């Protein structure tokens, strides 16, 4: 249970810190210029984003299964 409490506290602290930050809203041209290296098309960026999302989703599911299995077998309390 300590793992889940730690995760919940971390999530709460992230939300609190994100609410206190105030930044200027950049326009769409600034976002495009800072996020994409020159020469990458929109299609390439979409494919890269899709791959990153898939990898993070698989790793997240595996982590949840691993945490559940260790809790079930009594390795984490």
Q: What features would you highlight for this structure?
A:
0% strand; mainly alpha; 75% helix; single chain; 77 residues
Q: Care to describe what's here?
A:
Helices cover 75% and strands 0% of the residues. The longest helix is centred in the C-terminal third of the chain and has 31 residues, at 42-72. The protein is flat. By secondary structure, it is an all-alpha fold. The protein is built from three helices and no strands. The mean pLDDT is 75. The chain has a domain at 42-76. Residues 19-39 have a biased composition (Polar residues). Keywords: Membrane, Transmembrane, Transmembrane helix. The chain crosses the membrane at residues 53-75. Residues 17-45 are annotated as: Disordered.
Question: What structural category do the secondary elements indicate?
Answer: mainly alpha
Report how far the terminal alpha carbons are from each other: 6 Å
Give the percentage of residues in beta strands.
Answer: under 5%
Q: Average the pLDDT over all residues and give the rounded result.
A: 75
Helix content: over 70%
Give the topology string: H per helix, E per strand: HHH
Outline the low-pLDDT stretches: none
Radius of gyration from CA coordinates: 19 Å
Question: What count of helical segments does DSSP give?
Answer: 3
**What is the number of beta strands?**
0
Profile the largest sheet: none
Overall form:
flat
């Amino acid at each position: 249970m300590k793992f889940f409490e730690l995760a919940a506290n971390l999530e709460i602290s992230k939300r609190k810190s994100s609410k206190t930050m105030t930044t200027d809203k950049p326009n769409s041209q600034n976002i495009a210029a800072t996020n994409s290296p020159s020469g990458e098309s929109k299609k390439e960026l979409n494919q890269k984003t899709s791959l990153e999302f898939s990898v993070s989703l698989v790793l997240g599911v595996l982590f949840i299964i691993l945490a559940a299995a260790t809790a079930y077998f009594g390795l984490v309390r």
